[in-house]
Design goal:
With 173 residues, this protein is an all-alpha fold. It contains 8 helices and no strands. 13% of the residues are buried.
Length: 173
């Protein structure tokens, strides 16, 4: 693309860049100005790698910037403010504590092992960040059970399913 074409396309697609920046900024809690700068950088990369024979520039730009901002947002996500985190539930009565220990002792050996990994803090055992989401923890747990314990995939899936079912029964009590 020539410089004139790039300037024309930038003027045309600036609202799209702002829209995608706004969406990403709200997801990754970064200032919108920072995200917009990244969107402009991705715009310039898109102008350099665009191939007219493969489609329209607008379609290519949208996917390139949206996906690029998504990846950038994941890498540059700000840690959660401790004031915004929910309070932990720590006041267990003696009855609740006894009921929990009975529940824990009634689990199968493999399910008990997975429950103890989760209860003892998966960040230490699984070597993941403390702010990792549910999918990241589950993936790291599966990887840990496969590599460290040598469990087969069907066994891992069965134990995870049984653990979920056991936790669901605990929530109903």
């Amino acid at each position: 693309m020539t410089r004139k074409q790039i300037n024309t396309q930038f003027v045309k697609y600036t609202p799209l860049l702002h829209k995608l920046s706004h969406q990403t900024a709200s997801r990754c809690r970064r200032p919108e100005e920072d995200v917009f700068q990244q969107a402009c950088f991705l715009f310039m990369q898109a102008t350099e790698s665009f191939n007219e024979s493969k489609g329209k520039f607008g379609t290519y730009l949208f996917s390139r910037v949206r996906n690029g901002l998504s990846d950038w947002g994941k890498k540059n996500d700000l840690p959660k403010d401790p004031a915004d985190l929910p309070e932990t539930f720590t006041s267990l009565t003696a009855r609740d504590n006894a009921m929990f220990h009975d529940w824990l002792s009634g689990l199968k050996e493999e399910v008990h092992e997975v429950a103890m990994i989760i209860l003892n803090g998966p960040t230490e055992v699984l070597d993941i960040a403390g702010t990792a989401g549910r999918k990241a923890v589950l993936g790291a747990l599966r990887h840990h059970l496969r590599k460290t314990k040598g469990w087969s995939w069907p066994k891992i899936w069965t134990v995870i399913r049984e653990t979920k079912a056991a936790v669901a029964t605990l929530a109903l009590k």
